[in-house]
Amino acid sequence: MKKILVLGAGGQIGSELVPHLRSIYGANNVVATDVSSARCEKLAGEGPFELLNALDGKIFNDVVRMYRIDTIFNLVAVLSATGESNPRMAWNVNIGAVTNSLHIGRENGCAVFTPSSIGAFGNDTPKVKTPQDTIQRASTTMYGVCKVAGELLSDYYHYRFGVDTRSVRFPGLISYVTAPGGGTTDYAVEIFHAAVQEGAFTCNIKAGTYMDMMYMPDALRSVVQLMEADPAKLKHRNSFNIAAMSFDPEGIAAAIRQHIPDFRISYNVDPVKQAIADSWPDSMDDSCAREEWGWEPTYDLPAMTRDMIEKVREKLSKSK
Questions:
Q1: Which of 143, 157, 176, 215 is the catalytic position?
Q2: What is the pTM of this model?
Q3: Residues 73 and 164 both lie in one domain
Q4: One domain for residues 271 and 141
């Protein structure tokens, strides 16, 4: 990767991936794009930025050619819970962005990364240690339907047209940098802010609901590691299971009490989010990623909890 374009740079992943990529490849070699300039002021001040709607194929293609892009990171997504409030919009945005990325990648010889998700699995998928290759009937959310379609489209463009497509199935991502964006796993971010500020949290996912999670530093590292991997070693492409930790709300609450002993958790379950969570895996088998490109997480639940509480405290103290 030498000239990189990041779509949806102002989102949860992009706002951290862009600085990470710039620290590795140089600020001028990573072009941040988003439909909103307001949420990308910092990124625009640190390197090239273009206002871009990924659904506008002409302008998208013009930007790729202007900067001589060789790698596209398509991070545009309407997430699971938000997508259920407007499924048609979720389909148009999610599928439109991946289709344009693949087509423009083909036309310009670009590699294309479009993240998938645990949301690509459904009720018929094995729940524990979900295999790399298994049934994917993600019909409970439009987000999941789009992720399955995106995986298939990406594989099609690789095998039919030779586009270097690669992807991971992200678990829920936990970060102190950006606010959650309407996902089912958002509680695992919100709980830290509530713990530090109020010492208590009302969870919209019920106790006993296990889901795979990952700390953002590991997620960022996984993306670069996969995109730099030797293609000859990749038996799979779209998409690799990757995992770091699996817990339920009581588990993360117990980890927080190691640092905030009086922390309390209560429940007011959101039926829409709960139904989505119940359709997802409890844990994923990421042995293929480990074998094919050396994936290995560095953060487990205790290490992530310790760092999150420290960073959230620092962030809140600076905002006062």
A1: 143
A2: 0.93
A3: yes
A4: no
* Domain of 60, in residue numbers: 4-171
The rounded distance, in Å, linking the Cα atoms of 112 and 94 is: 15
Q: Say what the pLDDT of residue 318 is.
A: 80
Distance from the first to the final alpha carbon of the chain: 40
Read off the pLDDT of residues 78-101 as tens digits, 9 standing for 90 and up: 888 788 899 999 999 999 999 999
25-47 residue pLDDT tens? 999 999 999 999 988 999 999 99
Q: Helix and strand tally (H, E) in the chain?
A: 12, 14
Both 156 and 264 in a single domain?
no
Other Cβ atoms within 10 Å of 219 Cβ, number: 25
Let me know if residue 153 belongs to a domain. yes
Determine whether 156 is an active site residue.
no
Alpha helices, DSSP H only, in 248-300? 249-257, 271-279, 287-293
From 46, 152, 146, 165, select the one nearest 102 (Cα to Cα): 165
Residue 72: inside a domain, yes or no? Answer: yes
DSSP three-state, residue 224: helix
Q: Of 144, 171, 198, which marks where a domain is finished?
A: 171
Q: In terms of domains, do 263 and 315 share one?
A: yes
Report which residue type is found at 16. Answer: E
d(CA 48, CA 275): 41
